[in-house]
UniProtKB/TrEMBL annotation:
Bias type Basic and acidic residues, positions: 1-10
Ranges where the record places region Disordered: 1-22
Lineage of producing organism: Eukaryota, Fungi, Dikarya, Ascomycota, Pezizomycotina
Name of the molecule in the record: BTB domain-containing protein
Superkingdom of the source species: Eukaryota
Amino acid sequence: MPTSPESERSPKRHKSSSPMAPMASIPNVIDIAPMGSALMVLSELAGVKPVTLRLSRDMLTIASPIFATMISEASLAGDKISDEVLMHAAENDEPDTLYLLFNILHNRNEKLPSRLTVEALCKLAKTVEKYRCATSIGRGTAMWFDRLYNAAKAGTVAVDTWKMVEATYLLDESVFFARFTEMWVLAEDVSMKRLAVELYNRRHAQSGALKGDIDLLVNPCSVAFSKSARHYIDYAPGMMPDPDDDGKTVGSICHVDEGAATTYLGALRDELIWPPLAWPTTLGALVSQLQAFRTPDYDDCDKCDFCEDVKSRFGLAVDIVKKMHKDRLWGLCLDCFKAGGVKDGECRYEHSKLKGN
């Protein structure tokens, strides 16, 4: 007579040959998937420290490529207890949010709360985006969005509509994305709508300005590859070395500037600063990377009098861009915003203005 799955698992967990401790020695185990073969340790849950969640390895692998990678890496590293792979939650993950997410993924509907606050739903949405499992949870969040939407519409609960727009976007919840964006458009104060437009336009303008800043860095490098800068060592561009007795050209093309340009362009690419297609997802991350950028060492001792001096020009461009970013107003000036453009005279927040204003 075939044995049940439960009777098969018990001895596997207590193999004496396992180098890890038996399951009995792990405290505070919560079985989200009772027959699961994946364990995740949380630092704390509901005041209990630590807590280990038993999960389905197959479910996590199907639900999220990030969880699949975590399971694979833990298996390769030998992080196991008997046949169960052991993982640790990231420090910046909130245990309550992970517990909620895992219950949704494992269809443990009886464990789900009937209501969620706006803050809790936003945290869930950001965690779902991090682990790329929005498709897997499907419409699992619909009941919470529905309650908040109806409560906001009835005026019984104050709901941050913009946070709900963000949460529905991250969770790919099309129905409530349409409803909450409609609510924001129809209910938001007109001046706030104009502020949103101004902020969007400002971000677009700053993105364009950053591309111009990057061009300042790339320009001295690009010159090194131009036809007008090509020259023989110790000869001006366009001049040919004196031929030898056989009439053959004697001399070597100078590659000092090209070597410097290649080094600097490669460094910009490594730091995701250039080209724009390599930029991080936020302008703030790009600005931080520019501020942290350090010009790579390059020995240009072999340069001649006709080199473009790419090393010095690139270093100067880096310094100029960093200084501009420290002085730049990235957001909006309140006085200028209330003036409907650029305020005449001085503003309470000091910033540069276009000439003529």
